[in-house]
Design goal:
The chain is an alpha/beta fold. Helix content is 51%, strand content 10%. Strands 1-2-3-4-5-6 form a 6-stranded parallel β-sheet, with helices on one face. Helix 2 (39-52) runs parallel beside helix 3 (70-82) and helix 5 packs parallel to helix 6 (128-136). The radius of gyration is 18 Å and the shape is globular.
């Protein structure tokens, strides 16, 4: 869960195979993130995803030796996408993690003529005006998926209706979206507040991937320990997490 960059290429291939196998006849879409620290590995993962029957691929730009322009990102992603030409391709932009602050809407505008299988992007950045720019650029032809549990209602209001979120927030989003479509903004806002509270509780008790994995364990799905350099949350933090999530009604 969110630790792909801490796995070897071989491990990521195994994980992708497991997801495709487990989701067969159960989930409609399996999108595999193939971004790594080097172009060759990303292309290798992309090719593997096509071979095993993934639905689509997404890719982060390398974040140690960073691209310094959108043109460089287009050059890089063109090669990754070409390694799996039969699969829809999505850019994955999460700038506060990668440290790459470039305009995703500019990428869509420039990459469209060079990446035939480009379908859109997963936008996990915190800058909401840029989410609108991505949604409306190129006549709105590209699919924009939101990767933020805290901005679901705002995203719906500008036409971004596909979230990529923590699984335990799924029921909350479903209720939020149902209320939004019915025009019941009071209920939609209530569900958004619940999603926000989950984020606050998670941050309060360690935060990040370690806390998220602990929540999944509390819900009955043990995803295993985190990998260094991450550290697991303490027993005291886990008890506090359990207590607060029970109060919220998640457990």
């Amino acid at each position: 869960m969110g630790e792909g960059m801490s796995l070897t290429v071989a491990e990521r291939k195994q994980a992708a195979e497991s997801w495709v196998r487990a989701c067969k006849n159960k989930l409609k879409y399996v999108i595999i993130q193939v971004g790594t620290g080097d172009l060759r590995s990303s292309k290798e993962l992309a090719q593997h995803c096509q071979q095993i029957g993934a639905t689509a691929i997404a890719c982060l730009a390398p974040s140690y030796t960073k691209p310094t322009s959108v043109d460089a990102v287009v050059d890089y992603m063109e090669q990754v996408a070409a390694a799996a030409p039969d699969l829809p391709f999505y850019l994955y932009d999460i700038n506060f993690m990668t440290g790459i602050y470039l305009d995703s809407d500019e990428f869509l505008e420039k990459a469209g003529s060079r990446i035939p299988n480009l379908r859109g992007l997963k936008y996990s950045c915190k800058e909401l005006p840029k989410l609108l720019d991505c949604k409306t650029c190129c006549g709105g032809k590209y699919q924009v998926m939101l990767g933020s549990d805290e901005q679901l209602l705002t995203a719906l209001s500008i036409g971004v209706n596909v979230p990529v979120l923590n699984g335990f927030v799924g029921p909350t989003f479903d209720k939020l979206r149902t209320a939004f479509r019915k025009g019941d903004m009071d209920e939609a806002q209530r569900q958004q507040r619940i999603a926000r509270q989950i984020v606050v509780i998670t941050a309060k008790h360690g935060g990040g991937i370690p806390a998220v994995k602990s929540i999944m364990e509390l819900l009955g799905l043990d995803l295993g320990p985190v990998r260094l350099p991450l550290l697991p949350i303490t027993a005291q933090q886990k008890e506090g997490l359990k207590r607060d999530l029970k109060k919220l009604g998640l457990l």
